[in-house]
Amino acid sequence: MQKKGIISLLAAVAMMFGLWQFASQPTAAADEPNYIISTDATYAPFDFQDKNNQYVGIDMDILKEVAKRKHFTYTLKPMSFNAAAQMVANGQADGIIAGMMITDERKQVYDVSVPYYQSGVAWVVKDGSKVKSLEDLKGKTVALKTGTAAATYGKSLQDKYGFKIKYFNDTDTMYNDVVNGNSAATFEDMPVISYAIKNGMKLKVMNANDLGNAGGCGFFVKKGENAQLLADFNQAFAEMKQDGTYDKIIAKYLNAKQSTFAGDKKDNNSVWGILTSNKSAFAKGLWETVVLTVFGIIFASLWGLILGIMGISQNKFFRGLATTIIYTFRGLPLMVLAFFIYIGLPGVIGVKIPAFTAGLITLILNEGAYTGAFVRGGFEAVDKGQMEAARSLGLPYGSAMRKVIVPQGLKIMVPSFINQFIITLKDTSILSAIGILELTQTGTLIVARNSQGFRVWAIVAAIYLIVITLLTWLSNWVEKKVR
């Protein structure tokens, strides 16, 4: 019974994996190569979503023009900067364009294009700050974004000026840490901070006329691979510089008014305005969250049920195996597991795993382990006399479990199942780190565009609360019917 259950679950997961693999394959003309390009879509004006939820920015327009001129298509994979870079290093993506600075360290891992944008680093404080010089930062905390050239530049000044450093994975959170006074300053690429200030971020650039040297932004591919893609980029970029296309792209984003990409001011200055102007984006993000939650709950519950039954098996091997699986996946942080499955594992097995599939497997393994623990406890909570009575009536162990112990144990577990359903819903937000466009990632993209963190996250929090409330009501209704 246990073997059949395990085989059935693995077959179902494999089938789903195959379907999503097939669904994720891009359609392209037979004579046009298709590349997977990763990016950080929260780095305006280089990479972000506009008010129509389209990916735009200096990088996006350059990439689009290169693809047009060199007759190839591409599939864009937006996610956190570090994850996007790792995708290329591990062969999950063919290239990355994300306002990524060219450094000697990165040249050891990647092959890089000619610089397509030269940038300078500004140091920034909140409006009204008493910090007037770098010397004033002594003993204070400075916020930096991990993996960026601005962070490297800021780090290089730490010993000289005696400040402490706090790292963040996304730009908006870093900015708001300074605005809220938790950090005294930050270092950022000048065009990026200029866009944020233009969008209403209450920050002030302190060295606009004396910027630090960030270097040049480049297009990166894995070292020793995709030489043709890199050559196409360099050649097309040279053509764009020569015919004026590049200058038009730069002017389009650096000289644009806020409303061009972020929406009208009236749409961003109220919760209702943000909600109505981004309703389709919120709806898509919510739908992705619901789909992940439903599939995660179903398969994690099945997997947890199998682990629970294995955990009370008469066979020592199955009991030990169940205990090991539960211990392992309960002990791994969900984000670490997601990164391992989506970014680490493909580098070993040589097979690319779609983000949705990786996220779903993550939920199944993590939530299933927790489910398995309380399922095992629920079965063990059934009075031992029930099993003894069933066996005394001549029922085999398997039949006694199926007809006597499991039905009683499931009733005991109902509250735990309800609680785990709610946890699964909330845990889907962590999967935004691998680029799944669920509700949390949707909020991140909107904030990157309009810099209205408080209002956007208030909307996201309210949506989660409403869905969790509805799920709780439904679960309580099911509990009453079962009992």
From TrEMBL:
Stretches that traverse the bilayer: 286-309, 321-343, 349-366, 454-474
Ranges where the ABC transmembrane type-1 domain occurs: 286-475
Subcellular location per the Swiss-Prot or TrEMBL entry: Cell membrane
This enzyme's EC code(s): 4.2.2.-
Alphabetized InterPro entries for the sequence: AA_ABC_transptr_permease_3TM, ArtM/GltK/GlnP/TcyL/YhdX-like, Iontro_rcpt_C, MetI-like, MetI-like_sf, Solute-binding_3/MltF_N
Chief location bin: membrane
Record's signal peptide: 1-23
Gene3D superfamilies hit by this protein: MetI-like, Periplasmic binding protein-like II
Record key words, sorted: Cell membrane, Lyase, Membrane, Signal, Transmembrane, Transmembrane helix, Transport
A Pfam family that the UniProt record links to this protein: BPD_transp_1
Single GO molecular function: lyase activity
Group of enzyme by EC: lyase
Top-level division of the source organism's lineage: Bacteria
Membrane topology (UniProt): Multi-pass membrane protein
Family: Belongs to the binding-protein-dependent transport system permease family.
Protein name in the entry: Membrane-bound lytic murein transglycosylase F
Gene: mltF_3
